[in-house]
Amino acid sequence: MPIYDPRSAEVYDLLHRNHSYDREVDYVRAVVAREMPQARSLLDIACGTGNHLGLLASHFEVQGLDLSPGMLARARAKLPQLRFHEASMADFHLGQRFDVVTCLFRSIAAVSSLEALQASLRCIAAHLNPGGVVVVEPFFTPRTFWDQDLRVSQVEAEGLKVVWMYRSERRGSVGVFHNHYLIGRPQGIEHVHEAHDLGLFEPEEIVHAFQAAGLSVRHEAQGMGPLGCYVGRAPLSAR
C-alpha cells in the first residue's frame, strides 16, 4: 500500500488545495441522511491529512485511519481534537463500531490486489453497527486507467514552491504512479520520488467484495465524482 514520504505529505494540502472536499462531504451527508438519518459516528479510512474529516466533524463524531505516518502527522497537527489510527485498511482492529465508514478520494485503490480489497471490506463490515452505511469512491478499471500518461503541476505559497510531475503505467490489474516532487525553499531544493501501486478493479469485483463481506451494495453513477460511488449497508441485525 502507498505510504507517503513525510516531505511529500508536508506539501500534500498545497497540491490539492483546489480539490472539492466540501462538495464530497455534502454528498456523504446526503447519503447518510437518506440511508441512516440517526447516524452519529463515522470512521474515515485512508483519511490522509484529514481534509474530509475536518468538515465531517461538524456533523458526526469522527475518527480517521491511515497507514502513512507523515499524513497522520499533518492530520493530527490540523485536528488535534480528533482521534486517528495508524493501520492498513486491509488489517485494522479498533475494538469499536461506527454508524458510517467512508473511503474517499479513490483511496480504495491503495489496496493493489483483489485479496486485499476483500480483506478491506471484511474489516469495514466488522466495524459497522447494524444497519451502518459504507461510502466508497472507486478508482479506475483496467480499461479506463490512463496508461503512459505524463502530467505536471506547479503550486507555490509564501517561501515555498512545489513542482509535482508523475508518470503512470499499467501492469496488469495494477496502475503504477511514479511521482516526482521538487520542493523548493530559500534554503534549498529537495527532490522526492515515490512509486505508488494502485489496484484497478472491475465493478463486479468491487460488488463481490462488498457482498462477500455481508454488505448490500449499489453503485450510484451520480456520486461525488465521474466514477460514481458505491454505497453499502450492513445487515440490520448484528452479525
From TrEMBL:
GO terms for biological process: methylation. Pfam families: Methyltransf_25. It comes from the Bacteria. Residues 43-132 form the Methyltransferase domain. InterPro entries: Methyltransf_25, Methyltransf_Superfamily, SAM-dependent_MTases_sf. Keywords: Methyltransferase, Transferase. CDD domains: AdoMet_MTases. The keyword Transferase applies. One of its GO terms (molecular function) is methyltransferase activity. This is Class I SAM-dependent methyltransferase. It comes from Ideonella dechloratans. The lineage of its organism: Bacteria, Pseudomonadati, Pseudomonadota, Betaproteobacteria, Burkholderiales.
